[in-house]
Amino acid sequence: METQLNTSHRKIIHIDMDAFYASVEQRDNPDYRGKPIVVGGLPEGRGGVVATASYEARKFGVRSAMPSKQALQLCPQAIFVRPRFAAYKEVSQHIREIFSRYTDLIEPLSLDEAYLDVTTDKLNIGSAIEIAQQIKQAIKNELNLTASAGVSINKFVAKIASDMNKPDGLKFIGPSGVESFMEVLPVEKFFGVGKVTAQKMKKMGLHTGADLKKLSEEEMHRHFGKAGRFYFKIVRGVDSREVQPHRETKSMGAEDTFAYDLTTLDEMNAELDKIAVTVANRLEKYELKGRTITLKVKYSDFKQITRNQSFPAPVGDLEIISATAKQLMAVSFAEGQRVRLLGISLSNFNEVTIKQKPDKDTGQLLLF
């Protein structure tokens, strides 16, 4: 039996800023305009990772999360710029203020994107398309930046739609067009379908949403686990997830990527002390304590490990956090290893359900 679309549809907008960090840099520095800009770690020495790239750099194949050295090889004329997170946070705050003129149902996903539920909007405009257009224009007028918007009846389709006409695009997919849209969507575009899952699907002859619709819900679950049930519904245009302005905090922490590889345990312990201070301050701010402390280590070859220790009662003291992280580091350390990133997080919070408002500085939850 086919799952039917709900007759009472939400009006969901997904706003995604265009090449956000790079666009802010080009806006603030006229010399960068029209040129390939890469924001992230510099490619010299060990190098870093691309946070984002301008559209001029993307034409050469430069992408987020790519090693900066590879980006330089693809685009030798690229200008590498260190991130200015304080500037990006300030812009993000302004963008969030623009959103709040229309609705209080705002779910930030990061500094540069968010879902908005405008089923009932503050200004009684009524049209989600008109609201999206007004938001895009306000961002352009007030911040001299561009954003792309997707408008549909649920979060999944709105997010995909916002990526279809970038940059400075607006795509509407109405109730009657959702299922046909999903049927022609390549499987790799589905939320949660990574490279491995996409390859598995294609080996099974599943290349589009229409192919996925041929499988029953039980078959989807058997092949793809819990996610299979989600795919079964979403390919039929069913996504009941609400826009959540107050999301449950699963974990909280901090991490740091270093300019040079750390090679000694003393160096790592010194950095863990600093990170522990940040974590303890964040926990205190939100009045949280957790029963599990997790250490995250990323090595120079990008291999990553996590180690954790749980306690019978929730903890949040700086001394315990720091000492535990260093103990976990000592157990994990081996001579000759080169560490590029360290992180500490706490999870398994109090039994009471914890809901947190987005951080006033970043507009998002301080999730690890």
From TrEMBL:
<dbReference type="InterPro" id="IPR017961">
    <property type="entry name" value="DNA_pol_Y-fam_little_finger"/>
</dbReference>
<dbReference type="Pfam" id="PF00817">
    <property type="entry name" value="IMS"/>
</dbReference>
<keyword id="KW-0548">Nucleotidyltransferase</keyword>
<dbReference type="GO" id="GO:0006281">
    <property type="term" value="P:DNA repair"/>
</dbReference>
<keyword id="KW-0227">DNA damage</keyword>
<dbReference type="GO" id="GO:0006261">
    <property type="term" value="P:DNA-templated DNA replication"/>
</dbReference>
<dbReference type="GO" id="GO:0005829">
    <property type="term" value="C:cytosol"/>
</dbReference>
<dbReference type="InterPro" id="IPR022880">
    <property type="entry name" value="DNApol_IV"/>
</dbReference>
<feature type="site" description="Substrate discrimination">
    <location>
        <position position="21"/>
    </location>
</feature>
<dbReference type="InterPro" id="IPR043502">
    <property type="entry name" value="DNA/RNA_pol_sf"/>
</dbReference>
<dbReference type="InterPro" id="IPR050116">
    <property type="entry name" value="DNA_polymerase-Y"/>
</dbReference>
<dbReference type="InterPro" id="IPR043128">
    <property type="entry name" value="Rev_trsase/Diguanyl_cyclase"/>
</dbReference>
<keyword id="KW-0808">Transferase</keyword>
<dbReference type="GO" id="GO:0003887">
    <property type="term" value="F:DNA-directed DNA polymerase activity"/>
</dbReference>
<comment type="similarity">
    <text>Belongs to the DNA polymerase type-Y family.</text>
</comment>
<keyword id="KW-0460">Magnesium</keyword>
<protein>
    <recommendedName>
        <fullName>DNA polymerase IV</fullName>
        <ecNumber>2.7.7.7</ecNumber>
    </recommendedName>
</protein>
<dbReference type="InterPro" id="IPR053848">
    <property type="entry name" value="IMS_HHH_1"/>
</dbReference>
<keyword id="KW-0515">Mutator protein</keyword>
<dbReference type="GO" id="GO:0042276">
    <property type="term" value="P:error-prone translesion synthesis"/>
</dbReference>
<keyword id="KW-0239">DNA-directed DNA polymerase</keyword>
<comment type="function">
    <text>Poorly processive, error-prone DNA polymerase involved in untargeted mutagenesis. Copies undamaged DNA at stalled replication forks, which arise in vivo from mismatched or misaligned primer ends. These misaligned primers can be extended by PolIV. Exhibits no 3'-5' exonuclease (proofreading) activity. May be involved in translesional synthesis, in conjunction with the beta clamp from PolIII.</text>
</comment>
<feature type="active site">
    <location>
        <position position="113"/>
    </location>
</feature>
<keyword id="KW-0963">Cytoplasm</keyword>
<dbReference type="Pfam" id="PF21999">
    <property type="entry name" value="IMS_HHH_1"/>
</dbReference>
<comment type="subunit">
    <text>Monomer.</text>
</comment>
<dbReference type="GO" id="GO:0003684">
    <property type="term" value="F:damaged DNA binding"/>
</dbReference>
<dbReference type="Pfam" id="PF11799">
    <property type="entry name" value="IMS_C"/>
</dbReference>
<keyword id="KW-0479">Metal-binding</keyword>
<keyword id="KW-0234">DNA repair</keyword>
<feature type="binding site">
    <location>
        <position position="112"/>
    </location>
    <ligand>
        <name>Mg(2+)</name>
    </ligand>
</feature>
<dbReference type="InterPro" id="IPR001126">
    <property type="entry name" value="UmuC"/>
</dbReference>
<keyword id="KW-0235">DNA replication</keyword>
<dbReference type="GO" id="GO:0009432">
    <property type="term" value="P:SOS response"/>
</dbReference>
<feature type="domain" description="UmuC">
    <location>
        <begin position="12"/>
        <end position="194"/>
    </location>
</feature>
<dbReference type="InterPro" id="IPR036775">
    <property type="entry name" value="DNA_pol_Y-fam_lit_finger_sf"/>
</dbReference>
<feature type="binding site">
    <location>
        <position position="16"/>
    </location>
    <ligand>
        <name>Mg(2+)</name>
    </ligand>
</feature>
<dbReference type="GO" id="GO:0000287">
    <property type="term" value="F:magnesium ion binding"/>
</dbReference>
<keyword id="KW-0238">DNA-binding</keyword>
